[in-house]
Design a protein that fits this description.
alpha/beta, 9-stranded mixed sheet, 8-stranded parallel beta barrel, 12 helices, disordered N terminus
Length: 474
C-alpha cells in the first residue's frame, strides 16, 4: 500500500499511525469476518457476503452531526439527508433515521425505500435531473422538499402549485461551474454538467434571480459540486458560489426569501488505508473559514452526504474457489467481481480497492507479501478486484475481503452472467456484560435465490415471444 493525499495537504498511508477510532473499526471488521465463517454465513455453500459495521455507521452519523453542530449558530435548523443512492437498503436507512439522518432521494424507488424505512417527509429531499410530473405531484402532496433542476421543471412545479397548494420546501438547483476533480464522472460542477442551472451561462444568473422574484414560495437554493475525486477547496468554492447567489437574490428582493441552503454532499473517501480522512470536522471548519456567513444563523442548512457515511463500514468477503497462476503471476479466482464492484472492474484507476487476505477460518492471513491478481467469477478477462496486489498468498479455501465497500458496491448489483446478489448482514459486538462477547449478525438483505433470478428475467413470460407470429401474406 502506498501513500494517499487526502486533498487537504495531509498524507496518510505507509508508516502513518492509524487513529484509535479507525483502528477499532479495522479490528471489528477482522473479528466479523472470522465470526461470519464460524457462524456459517461464509463457506462453500455461501461463498460471498456483504458485511456492514453497525457501530461504525452510528459513529459516522454522530461525527457528521457533531461537526456541523460545532460551527453553526445555536438554534440553526440543520438536516443531514443521506444520499440513498449510496446504499439503498431499507435497514440502513432505518438505522440512519434512528441516528438523526434523513434521506436524499433521486427516484420513485429511492423515495419508496425511504418511506419504507420510516423517514418522514420533513426529513426527505427529492433531487433528480429527470423528475416526471407524477413524481413531482407525489412529492408536493407529501410535503417533501424539492429542488427544481431546470426551467422546464420549474414550469411543471408552477402548474402543480396553481392546482393545489403544497407545504413542500421548494428551491432551484444551480451548477456553480467551478470545475471538476480527478474523476470526471463524479464531478457535477463542470461547465457542461447535466445537473442544475448553469450559473455562468449567458443570462442564467439573471433568470434565477427573476425566478425567485416571481415565486415567493421558492425558499431554498441548492448546489452540489461532486464527490470522490473532488478536493475540499473546490467543494468550498461551490458552496461559496451558492451562498453568494442567495445573498444577491435576497438583497434584490429586499427580504430574506431564501432561508435555507442545500450544500449537497461530496466528501471524498480515503480508499488507501483505514484512516478516515478528510473528516467531517475538517470540512465544516473549512466552510466556516471560506464562507463565514454560512453558519451565522440566517440560513438553515441541508447536507446530502452518501459515500462518506457508509463506505468504510462495509466489506465484501468472497471465498477463493481456485488458486492458479498465469504468466508466472498467482491468480486467486473468487466470487466477488464485476457484479458487486462494477466501477472498480471497469475503471480500476479511479476506483481501486484494498484487499485483505483471510485464511479458511476467517482469520487475517499472515506471511510475506506476494504480488498477485484477485479475480472475480465473470466471463471476461478484465473481471479483477485487484491487479498486481501485494498481500499474503491467497490459496484455495481462503477468503478475500474487499475493504471500504459500504457504499456503491454490494447494494448496486450488476447482473453479469446472472450472478446472484449476495446476502448482506449487519454486525455489532455482543454485549460482553454476561461474559459471552463475540459478534452478533442481523440480516439486511437475503441472498438472491435462483428462482428470483429467473423471475427477474421474465420467467413468468417464457412463452410470450413464441406466440407472436408474422401476418400471413395473401
Amino acid at each position: 500500500m502506498g501513500s494517499y493525499n487526502d486533498m487537504t495537504g495531509d498524507v496518510v498511508g505507509n508508516g502513518i499511525e492509524i487513529p484509535a477510532y479507525d483502528a477499532g473499526r479495522a479490528a471489528r471488521r477482522d473479528e466479523a469476518v472470522r465470526a461470519a465463517v464460524e457462524q456459517g454465513l461464509l463457506g462453500p455453500g455461501s461463498p460471498i457476503v456483504g458485511l456492514l459495521d453497525v457501530t461504525g455507521i452510528r459513529e459516522s452519523a454522530a461525527a457528521l452531526r457533531a461537526a456541523f453542530d460545532a460551527v453553526v449558530a445555536p438554534g440553526t435548523p440543520v438536516l443531514h439527508a443521506f444520499a440513498v443512492k449510496a446504499t439503498p437498503l431499507v435497514p440502513v436507512l432505518r438505522l440512519l433515521r434512528e441516528e438523526g439522518i434523513g434521506a436524499e432521494v433521486a427516484s420513485p424507488g429511492e423515495l419508496a425505500l425511504a418511506r419504507a424505512a420510516g423517514v418522514g417527509p420533513e426529513a426527505t429531499v427529492l433531487d433528480s435531473p429527470a423528475k416526471t410530473p407524477a413524481e413531482l405531484r407525489e412529492a408536493l402532496a407529501l410535503g417533501i422538499a424539492v429542488n427544481a433542476d431546470n426551467p422546464q421543471e420549474l414550469d411543471r412545479i408552477d402548474a402543480l402549485m396553481r392546482s393545489a397548494a403544497s407545504r413542500s420546501p421548494l428551491g432551484i438547483r444551480v451548477n456553480p461551474q467551478v470545475g471538476g476533480g480527478s474523476i470526471g464522472a463524479t464531478s457535477t460542477a463542470t461547465a457542461t454538467s447535466k445537473f442544475g442551472v448553469a450559473l455562468r451561462d449567458e443570462g442564467a444568473r439573471e433568470w434565477v434571480v427573476r425566478a425567485y422574484q416571481d415565486r415567493p414560495w421558492l425558499t431554498r437554493l441548492h448546489a452540489h459540486t461532486g464527490s470522490q475525486g473532488i478536493p475540499l477547496s473546490l467543494l468550498a468554492q461551490g458552496v461559496a458560489a451558492a451562498y453568494t447567489l442567495a445573498e444577491e437574490i435576497n438583497r434584490r428582493i429586499g427580504r430574506r426569501q431564501i432561508d435555507t441552503l442545500d450544500i449537497g454532499g461530496g466528501l471524498p473517501v480515503n480508499f488507501a488505508s483505514d484512516a478516515t480522512t478528510p473528516t467531517y470536522a475538517q470540512y465544516a471548519r473549512l466552510l466556516s473559514e471560506a464562507v463565514p456567513g454560512l453558519f451565522d444563523g440566517r440560513y438553515g442548512l441541508v447536507t446530502e452526504f452518501g459515500r462518506s457515511l457508509l463506505a468504510k463500514h462495509g466489506t465484501i468477503v468472497a471465498r477463493v474457489e481456485y488458486a492458479k497462476s498465469a504468466g508466472g503471476r498467482p491468480v486467486a479466482v473468487t466470487h466477488a467481481g464485476v457484479q458487486v464492484a462494477t466501477r472498480t472492474v471497469y475503471a480500476p484507476g479511479s476506483w481501486p480497492l484494498r484487499i485483505a487476505a483471510h485464511d479458511g477460518k476467517g482469520r487475517p492471513k499472515e506471511g510475506p507479501a506476494v504480488v498477485q491478481d484477485v479475480a472475480g467469477p465473470a466471463c471476461f478477462s478484465g473481471d479483477l478486484l485487484a491487479e498486481g496486489a501485494a498481500l499474503p498468498l491467497l490459496e484455495q479455501g481462503d477468503f478475500a475481503a474487499a475493504l471500504d465497500t459500504g457504499a456503491y458496491y454490494f447494494a448496486h448489483h450488476y447482473a453479469y452472467n446472472s450472478l446472484a446478489r449476495p446476502g448482506v448482514y449487519g454486525f455489532a459486538p455482543k454485549d460482553a456484560g454476561d461474559g459471552a462477547g463475540g459478534i452478533a449478525f442481523a440480516t439486511v438483505r437475503e441472498p438472491q435465490s435462483l428462482d428470483e433470478i429467473v423471475a427477474e428475467s421474465g420467467g413468468a413470460h417464457a412463452s410470450s415471444l413464441t406466440t407472436l407470429r408474422a401476418p400471413r401474406s395473401r
